[in-house]
């Protein structure tokens, strides 16, 4: 791969949007995946990857010769490819649609949802009632200040940094407009994080709480580590809790590392308004999973309950359940005569789920991979009930392993063939599928249709404004 600032520059017309935040263009018979453009624009492109034998090249728009009417001033100067080209630097990744009018961003994302469903699932989204990507409730007019969670790299000098797209280079941050007002108020880019290689910051929407997690550089141990953490804590006194996350591999939400308190608490309280008007408080440990967009927890809960339609007495599984965001309202809907089986893989996040649903005897929390745990848990009911279920609700014993409905919200890779197979085996009549990747959603949708389900309705929410990402929600019914 070649990636240099003195890359060759070619002039071309930008073509249609492709999945992944690129636009397809052609130059002298070769496909170039172009970022930071818009369909129909005449542009000069800095070709950042141009190996002779490659099937396609990649490039960033460096100059616009004929602009689209959908182009606007970029929301974040450090991610603005045009400003970066003028300054002779690379734009930061993470806001690759920041130069596009918000309504036009949503139209592009709608095109991607339709194209992926058609190409990977042979499904016509419009025929299934898809009405285009919807704005998140309460959307800011520029699509900024929505991220309640941020992860940063740190420079040798201790400054928060991020990477340009497909680059290991570290660029110190001067601001980050997608971060929520609560995170921006902390001004973390002005602080010094010497001694640490990664910093994660979470701040619940509308609350005074914030939690900063510090991941030490290799070799920083014992008193030196404690002193470095205290030096950071002093810069945020009273403004944020602080924890030290020591982790060899994996993502923070795996719960595979150890979280040590430095100042304040090691968890946050996230409050979500439920459709019935109530508010539920969820405890989320520093390294545990929680939705990123400030409006996502309430908006997704509403969408899931609408598609899932849980009824009193029903047996429902919440798969890839995180800290129990959907488990709680589903448990309320099925009531004590019903049952919710909540499966989450990451031990730390599953512990959060256990705490968050402890007052609902109808909820069973199982920690493990969905592909295996769904089968073992439901098979046990066919015999004597799960250990936990038996203990908490002896009457479940002797029931078969069938479910009435399933909600699943897998990571970007989707449920995959193994996950779809296990879910289909439960013979659930209704499935609500929440997905953060239209490609894996389309592939899994095709698998569900092969296993006797039909995608009856599909929506998409713009929970990642100014990026190419989009959240898709599908309702499948057994036919
Ligand atoms: C997109 S999150 C959804 C969490 C939750 N539904 C929510 O909205 O807060 C996906 C979750 O799936 C978990 N996960 C990933 N792969 C898994 C697997 N194979 N089995 C069980 N859980 C898994 C992750 O740890 C993460 O908590």
TrEMBL record:
It holds the Pfam family TRAM. GO terms for biological process: rRNA base methylation. Keywords: Methyltransferase, S-adenosyl-L-methionine, Transferase. Transmembrane segments: none annotated. The active site is at residue 436. S-adenosyl-L-methionine binds at residues 291, 320, 344, 409. InterPro entries: MeTrfase_TrmA_AS, NA-bd_OB-fold, SAM-dependent_MTases_sf, TRAM_dom, U5_MeTrfase_fam. GO terms for molecular function: rRNA (uridine-C5-)-methyltransferase activity. Residues 381-402 are annotated as: Disordered. Residues 3-63 form the TRAM domain. Belongs to the class I-like SAM-binding methyltransferase superfamily. RNA M5U methyltransferase family. This is tRNA/tmRNA/rRNA uracil-C5-methylase (TrmA/RlmC/RlmD family). It comes from Zhihengliuella flava. The lineage of its organism: Bacteria, Bacillati, Actinomycetota, Actinomycetes, Micrococcales.
